[in-house]
Structures are given as structure tokens and as C-alpha cells.
């Protein structure tokens, strides 16, 4: 499905920051526009103080790149832009260049549903400087949000311990785009369905829902409302019981359940949306069981997140299904992933690649230079470590040392010959042509489940997770340090 074309009916090439266009113009003006470069998209810290992150959004990236072009309306808008002195921001020759600009980059990326870690590239872009620069903002916009929501969903599903989690966030999401992208990412992260009907149509996600308090309030009595709903949906009755009095609502649901049963139908369950969910779910479970409805589900909602769900589980709350909305689709406790897009290498006039490093007073913000990739090592199906390495660097199968990018005292020795390995960056585009077969959303969701299962549960703890080993291959670490010291002009004791 052509996501951008279906939703917007136009090019999205101007979905960018203004400074990307001004840099593109300056590259063109200085003759550097076609100089080849490599950029990497990565993040520096896991969201939610967690121990893992779940990649999402690549499908949107592919769609964006497939439709990358400056259309007539885009150029007309750029043409009328004026500087402070009233002169055009962009000269006509540059706009003519943009009109004929064709996407020719190589893009390698981790597949959606892959567990990823700080400082490892999620997307690598190689191509002319102008094109690489123009991709920065849209790629970050896409990957940042969907990865954040997929990770939040995975954490919530982990807390639910295998019980179904329904995504109910449409009305609280950040606009139409945020709602649709969040529903898709939440499904990748393990949610079983969404209340968002358009997301169901566009992405094939199962849709689910019950009824609101307004349905109950529109009738004279709660009992009448339940009976009318049962008459309309005899095979999928989940009654919202907390409009007036929760336990009395459970009694009314049981009465209507008995009427349904007399007609050969069965009540699916009840939903509780307020109050002490642990207390009311336990009481409701007792009432349902005593009335002969042991299979009736109890659905809980009301500003849930992974921490509240974990707390309810620890209290032995009798909840079977979890409806999560606001705190999932808005990533309530951390509204941004903070992924960045940095230049890591540039091709000189002699045709050689020159590694580039951004130096900072904060070691966390020093990027990884060069043309690099990540290998994940597995033992008996479990991920044991990730190594970031230069692609032209030969790896000794008998032993390699990986060094933490932020803390060089944290090191781990690996024996690659004893592990199974996976190269995480996969070719997506080659010379601007898609070479990657996009998986279905169901396949992405299955990969996410498999990837999460490959992690030791200590890395998935909601609080104080165990640190998964990720490090630079020793030669890459030395290259990085050499470039940093050179950039800082430190005296290394050499003449």
C-alpha cells in the first residue's frame, strides 16, 4: 500500500526543516552537492529508562523514498520565498536542478521489528550530499515516533504477561498522522487489535471495541441499555459496568448474560473503566463465577501503562484483557525517542572515504565514524552481544574485543566462531532502486515477537534492566579515539 499517496495524494518532499533546503542550496552553490557521503540514523539512550528498543517505521521510509521528487507545486512554493532584502531565497538554476533531481541513494536499515540498542545504526544512507541531507528530517520524523510507540507497546505487553492488550488511543493521539502511525507501531509491538477503524482498513489490523458510557446514559436504565446492546450484538457482548455503580453494573450484566444464554448465545465479558481496578475486578470475577460465567472476560481500561498493569498483576487483579490508550499512543512518560542523523564519512576528490566524527564535551554525543554496520551474536537462539564494526575490517573468528562507545572501561571479549551471527543492516535501496521485499505487517509483528523472545528477560525489566552488551570492534574504537584526539588537537606526546 502506498501510504503517502493514499493519505496525502501528493509528494511529501517538503516535509523537512527549512535548514535542510538552505544547506542543499549551499551544497549546490559550492559545487559539493554531488559529493558522496554516508549518514547514520541512531539513538543514544533507550526510551522509558528501559533495556531495549523496538525498530519500526521502515515501511513509511520506503514509501517516502519511492515518491521522492519535487513536484511543480513544491517548486512554485520555493520560488516565491524571499530573503529579508526581498530577493529570492533560491535562485532559478537551483530550482531547475531540484526539478530534475532523482533519488539515487543506497539505503541499508534494520528490519522493522528488530530489537536495537544505542549508538548502533538503524538506517544508513549513502549518496550525494544533497539527497542525504534532504532525507534527514523525514527519516527522523518517521523512525523516531514509530520506534518509540512500538517500544512502549512491547513494554506494556511484557507487563501484561501474555494477556491481550487492545490499543484504544485514537481520540487522544497527536492528530491523524500520529493516530495511524501509533496504531501500526502498537500492533508491531504486540497489541492484538486497535479501536482505530482507518488503521484497520489501511494496515489490516484487527479492530475491536465495546460501547461508551453515553450508550448507557441514553437509556432510562442500565438494564435497558444492556438488553438493547445484547439485541444488536448477541455474539460479542462486552458490557461497560461502571457508569453508575460498578458492582450493580456487574449484576445487570449477569442478568442480560442469562437472557443471552437462554437464546443460545454467550456473554463475552464486562469492562471496567474507573475506580479501584484490582478491587472491582476481583469482586466482579467472584460474582461472574458464582453466577455460572467463569469464561466471561474482564476488560480493564482507564489510563493504563506498563507500570500500572504490573502493579495490578502483583495485586492478583482478575483482569483478562487490557485496553490501553493515552499513555501508549502518546508515549506519555517520554514523548520523543531522540534519534539523530549524523555524517560518518565523506568521499574525497581522490575517491577515498574519509571517516568523520562529531566531537562533543559529552562522550554520549560523539558519533561513530566510518562506513560501519552491526553484527548480533546468538547462542542457542538467545542474543548475547552486538558488535559495531567497519565493513572493510576483517573480524578474527577466534576472538574479538568490543568496547562500550560511552564507557571505554566496559569491554567484552567474544569468540565469533562459537556463535551464530546476524548482520543487522539490510540493503533496502541500491542506486535509488528498491531491492528489499517489504514484509507484511503480520510478518513484522512476528519478527518483533521473535526478537523480544531472543532477549534475556533481565534486559526487559521495566525498572533497572540489565545492560545488554553493545560495543565497538577494537579497531573501530581506536579509529574513533584517533579522530577525536585529532579534532581536539590533543598533544599525544609525539613530535
UniProtKB/TrEMBL annotation:
Signal peptide, first to last residue: none
Glycosyltransferase keyword on record: yes
InterPro entries in UniProt: Aldolase_TIM, N/Namide_PRibTrfase, NAPRTase_C, NAPRTase_N, Nic_PRibTrfase-Fam, Nic_PRibTrfase_pncB, Nicotinate_pribotase-like_C
EC number: 6.3.4.21
Keywords annotated in UniProt: Glycosyltransferase, Ligase, Phosphoprotein, Pyridine nucleotide biosynthesis, Transferase
Name by which UniProt lists this protein: Nicotinate phosphoribosyltransferase
Pfam families in the cross-refs: NAPRTase, NAPRTase_C, NAPRTase_N
Post-translational modification comment from the UniProt entry: Transiently phosphorylated on a His residue during the reaction cycle. Phosphorylation strongly increases the affinity for substrates and increases the rate of nicotinate D-ribonucleotide production. Dephosphorylation regenerates the low-affinity form of the enzyme, leading to product release.
Positions of the Nicotinate phosphoribosyltransferase C-terminal domain: 376-479
Highest rank taxon of the organism: Bacteria
Domain Nicotinate/nicotinamide phosphoribosyltransferase: from-to ranges: 167-348
Keyword Ligase set for record: yes
Species this protein is from: Algoriphagus aestuariicola
Amino acid at each position: 500500500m502506498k501510504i503517502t499517496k493514499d493519505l496525502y495524494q501528493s509528494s511529501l518532499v517538503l516535509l523537512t526543516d527549512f535548514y535542510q533546503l538552505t544547506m542543499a542550496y549551499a551544497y549546490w552553490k559550492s559545487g559539493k552537492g554531488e559529493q558522496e557521503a554516508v549518514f547514520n540514523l541512531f539513538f543514544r539512550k533507550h526510551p522509558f529508562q528501559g533495556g531495549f528498543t523496538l525498530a519500526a517505521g521502515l515501511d513509511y521510509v520506503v514509501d517516502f523514498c519511492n515518491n521522492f521528487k519535487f513536484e511543480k507545486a513544491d517548486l512554485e512554493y520555493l520560488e516565491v520565498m524571499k530573503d529579508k532584502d526581498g530577493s529570492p531565497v533560491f535562485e532559478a538554476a537551483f530550482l531547475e536542478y531540484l526539478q530534475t533531481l532523482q533519488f539515487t541513494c543506497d539505503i541499508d536499515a534494520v528490519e522493522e521489528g528488530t530489537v536495537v540498542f544505542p549508538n548502533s545504526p538503524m538506517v544508513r544512507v549513502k549518496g550525494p550530499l544533497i539527497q542525504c541531507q534532504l532525507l534527514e528530517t523525514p527519516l527522523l520524523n518517521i523512525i523516531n515516533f514509530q520506534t518509540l510507540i512500538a517500544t512502549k507497546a512491547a513494554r506494556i505487553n511484557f507487563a501484561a504477561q501474555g494477556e491481550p492488550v487492545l490499543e484504544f488511543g485514537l481520540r487522544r493521539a497527536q492528530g491523524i498522522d500520529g493516530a495511524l502511525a501509533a496504531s501500526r507501531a502498537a500492533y508491531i509491538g504486540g497489541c492484538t487489535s486497535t479501536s482505530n477503524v482507518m488503521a484497520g482498513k489501511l494496515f489490516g489490523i484487527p479492530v475491536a471495541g465495546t460501547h461508551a458510557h453515553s450508550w448507557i446514559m441514553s437509556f432510562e436504565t442500565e438494564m435497558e441499555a444492556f438488553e438493547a446492546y445484547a439485541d444488536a450484538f448477541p455474539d460479542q457482548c462486552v458490557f461497560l459496568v461502571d457508569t453508575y455503580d460498578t458492582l450493580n453494573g456487574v449484576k445487570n450484566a449477569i442478568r442480560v448474560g442469562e437472557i443471552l444464554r437462554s437464546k443460545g448465545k454467550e456473554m463475552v465479558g464486562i469492562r471496567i473503566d474507573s475506580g479501584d481496578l484490582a478491587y472491582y475486578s476481583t469482586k466482579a470475577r467472584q460474582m461472574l463465577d458464582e453466577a455460572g460465567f467463569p469464561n466471561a472476560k474482564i476488560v480493564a481500561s482507564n489510563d493504563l501503562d506498563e507500570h500500572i498493569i504490573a502493579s495490578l498483576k502483583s495485586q492478583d487483579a482478575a483482569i483478562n484483557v487490557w485496553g490501553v490508550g493515552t499513555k501508549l499512543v502518546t508515549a506519555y512518560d517520554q514523548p520523543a525517542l531522540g534519534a539523530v542523523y549524523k555524517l560518518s564519512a565523506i568521499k574525497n576528490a581522490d575517491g577515498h572515504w574519509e571517516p568523520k566524527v562529531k566531537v562533543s564535551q559529552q562522550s554520549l554525543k560523539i558519533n561513530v565514524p566510518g562506513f560501519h554496520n552491526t553484527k548480533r551474536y546468538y547462542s542457542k537462539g538467545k542474543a548475547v552481544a552486538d558488535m559495531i564494526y567497519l565493513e572493510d575490517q576483517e573480524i578474527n573468528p577466534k576472538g574479538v574485543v568490543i568496547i562500550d562507545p560511552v564507557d571505554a572501561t566496559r569491554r567484552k571479549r567474544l569468540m565469533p566462531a562459537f556463535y551464530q551471527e546476524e548482520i543487522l543492516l539490510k540493503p533496502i535501496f541500491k542506486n535509488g532502486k528498491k531491492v528489499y521485499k517489504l514484509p507484511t505487517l503480520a510478518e513484522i509483528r512476528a519478527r518483533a515477537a521473535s526478537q523480544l523472545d531472543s532477549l534475556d528477560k533481565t534486559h526487559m525489566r521495566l525498572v533497572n534492566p540489565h545492560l545488554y552488551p553493545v560495543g565497538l570492534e577494537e579497531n573501530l574504537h581506536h579509529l574513533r579515539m584517533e579522530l577525536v584526539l585529532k579534532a581536539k588537537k590533543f598533544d599525544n606526546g609525539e613530535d
